[in-house]
Amino acid sequence: MLQNAFPDNKKSDNRDLNSTSKNNSGIIDMTQLEDFNQQIYEQFSSLLEKKKLTNQLNDSVSVQEFIAESERLNIIEKAPFYVAKFLFTEQIVKEIEAYRMLLYQLCKKHMTRQRSLLIGIEMIIDENSELQEKLLNTGCISRIFYELYQKDIVTEEVFCHWHEQNATEIINETISTKIRDCAENFVEWLHSAEEGSDEDDNRSK
């Protein structure tokens, strides 16, 4: 059971969600990603590659510079999607740890950006048959999502909302459905962890 694999019953911290995020459902119009300006994307990719090569994606000053540049290019809401596409490989769990600061700073308090990151992960699996073979199973998907959750990059609320939604237009529906099926145990674990935390809170009153 996932509850044994993931022993820390951690309650989702809604304090990380700002008032704007609370007033929306975390849905991003992902069709806009297909219309993404190629020149801006090339600038963004060049900046990301430069910081990766100089090992500056876990340096606080460099990460803030990267975020500021993403805001200047007016792509901050889509940035997590492209970060996932550019940085993640079959070693995604290790890469989440390696780029933890970047992912956290990009996604904290922003449900839309968190959902953008999840769709980016869907996309890299959808586009690569080797990744489908290696990652498209309950164990791998659960571990990837647990790392994102445990490191406060993606909240329980966003995971659950993403899981309930249909596939986006830019992801193959069959692959997207398989990913959600593989995430079923993880989402159930989130619900059970939340219920356990609520019971503990009630007993302490």
UniProtKB/TrEMBL annotation:
SUPFAM superfamilies given in the database record: ARM repeat (SSF48371)
Source species, domain of life: Eukaryota
Entries under InterPro entries matching the protein: ARM-type_fold, W2_domain
Chain spans, region Disordered: 1-24
Domain W2, residue spans: 34-200
Gene3D superfamilies per the UniProt record, alphabetical: 1.25.40.180
This protein's name: W2 domain-containing protein
